[in-house]
Amino acid sequence: MAGKSSLILELLKHREVVFNSTFERIVFTTDEDTFEDKKSYLENLRKVCPEIEIMPGIPNLLDLGLLFQPDKPKLLVMDDMAEMIVKDKAMMGLFTVVKETK
């Protein structure tokens, strides 16, 4: 398990202390090509965070409710997906801040 994966596991394990809000949903996504290889890691995630939703690939933002319920905190963890994120228009929109100029 790499350093980032260990960090994610520890953050979720101690989420009540690390984060100052309770999440309505916690969603973990990872690369579809390596999803099967991460079975034991995913099992560990479920042990430390039973309510976690685990899915392969880029999630549908509408299905996650990330866009229309900003008042309800959600945690979206996207592990080993940087290349896919930059290729996905919806994901890039999620991570892009638009500043209006007057």
Q: What is the CA-based Rg, rounded? A: 15 Å
- Which regions have little confidence, pLDDT < 50, spanning 5+ residues? 98-102
Distance between the termini: 48 Å
Residues in β-strands, percent: 15-25%
Total separate domains? 1
Q: Give the CA-based shape.
A: globular
Oligomerization status of the protein chains: single chain
Q: Could you state the order of secondary-structure elements as H and E?
A: HHEHEHEHH
Number of strands: 3
Secondary structure category: alpha/beta
Arithmetic mean pLDDT: 83
Helix content: 40-55%
Name the strands of the widest sheet in spatial order: 2-1-3
How many strands, what sense, and barrel or not for the largest sheet? Answer: 3 strands, parallel
Number of helices: 6
Keywords, separated by commas or semicolons:
single chain; 102 residues; alpha/beta; 3-stranded parallel β-sheet; 3 strands; 40% helix; 16% strand; globular; disordered C terminus
Topology:
Layout: H1 3-13, H2 15-18, E1 25-30, H3 39-48, E2 53-56, H4 61-64, E3 74-79, H5 82-87, H6 89-94
Parallel strand pairs: 1-2, 1-3
